[in-house]
Amino acid sequence: MGRNYYIIDFDSTFTQVEALDELARISLQDHPDREKIYQKIEDLTNLAMEGKLSFRESLTGRVQLLEANRDHLKQLIKHLKKKVSASFSRNKAFFKHHADDVLIVSGGFKEFITPVVSSYHIKKENIYANTFVFDKTGKIIGYDASNPLSDEGGKVKLLKTLKLPGEIYGIGDGHSDFQLKEYGMIKKFYAFTENIERKSVAEKADHVTPSFDEFLYVNKLPRAISYPKNRILCLIIGDVPEEAVQFLKKDGFSIRIKTSFEEKYVPDAGIILLGDGEKIETEKLQRAVKLKTIGYLGNSKKQLSHKLCTQMGIVVFDNPKRPVSIAKKIARFMNNGDTYKSANFPHLQLPRVENSHRLIHIHKNVPGVMAKINQVFAQNKINIVSQFLMTNAQIGYVITDISVEYDKQLLKELKQIEHTIKFRILY
């Protein structure tokens, strides 16, 4: 098998922001016309990203407006370290394992990119970006114009000189990233939309990836969470405050806002958040095979069958007063397995365990199931890091954290244990 390379953009991809825009906010904070200048810089960024202005014109214009120095850069680096995109920051392990295969290729500047990506095990020699020119006092007065990345089509020019011996995959949010595909330099281009979606770029991509987890999932690469959250459909039905919707959206779930539980969503919904007074018919609930949790902004007992939810392994949270609190409980259950304060499940609050995979097993509360679960782990020679079990009269809810290396056969065997209601890998 040939080798794969992963070319990753920096601004609005590896980080949530455009670094030069942020640098301007730092360097011009005391400038009387700062708002006008910020807007000019932002416009120059967007015009180049959408392919409406040459990259060099955009870069020159932005650098001239900055009025920045080395001290401003120090502040910027501190800021950018806190602004790494969520899905990149949770996949540090991927970068460690693929340190030789990942290249950061950016029209940004090494002075701020290198300190930010270095803590992700990305090698200095694999960082390709522009460099600033400073005067004697440390003020930025320009950039090295001989660097191909300062020019229009710079990423294409750079890749031609690198002659990487293998399949190349590119991830980015801008026109310059798409150009790599357009000129046949890479096998596939993934439009990264976690921070910003540029329609003109997304519609030309081989695949739109709303998170780095999605990219890793599609390419069967090791990742921090087993199933990308953007693939989990979250239905919002009825009167649900915007702040609760935004919380789940920001957490990465795929949101649909509807007036009722439409038939086409019954087999696919993973999460449902309902406004007060909304009902779910028992017949629909029975067919909602992917449904993992329901949030209800009121008292859910009369509006949906708790008994059926429990039998199906669906965790119900309700609270008439605090919509955002419900959204947080849903996210904590989906991300961590917490069932604390659920209306129908045993209450479990869990620590996050690093360097392990978390498995959730929901089963009927009958004697012997736990013994069978642990027998499967033993037969597959699995190292159990930690295990948590809570039961009520109907069900057992067990969380097992296991070391990262295991055979997929294990998952099949756990699903097949008699009296299993639901099983999934959490991360």
TrEMBL record:
The pathway it acts in is: Amino-acid biosynthesis; L-serine biosynthesis; L-serine from 3-phospho-D-glycerate: step 3/3
Q: Indicate whether Coiled coil appears among the record's keywords.
A: yes
Reactions mediated catalytically: O-phospho-L-serine + H2O = L-serine + phosphate; O-phospho-D-serine + H2O = D-serine + phosphate
What Enzyme Commission number(s) appear in the record?
3.1.3.3
Provide the alphabetized UniProt keywords: Amino-acid biosynthesis, Coiled coil, Hydrolase, Magnesium, Metal-binding, Serine biosynthesis
* Source taxon at top rank: Bacteria
Which Gene3D superfamilies does this one have? 3.30.70.260, HAD superfamily/HAD-like (3.40.50.1000), NAD(P)-binding Rossmann-like Domain (3.40.50.720), Phosphoserine phosphatase, domain 2 (1.10.150.210)
Q: Does the keyword Cytoplasm apply?
A: no
Could you tell me which residue ranges the ACT domain spans? 358-427
Q: Name the cofactor(s) required for activity, per the record.
A: Mg(2+)
InterPro entries annotated for this entry?
A: ACT-like_dom_sf (IPR045865), ACT_dom (IPR002912), AHAS_small-like_ACT (IPR054480), HAD-like_SerB (IPR050582), HAD-like_sf (IPR036412), HAD_sf (IPR023214)
Q: Which residues form a coiled coil?
A: 56-83
Q: What is this protein called?
A: phosphoserine phosphatase
Give the species: Chitinophaga defluvii
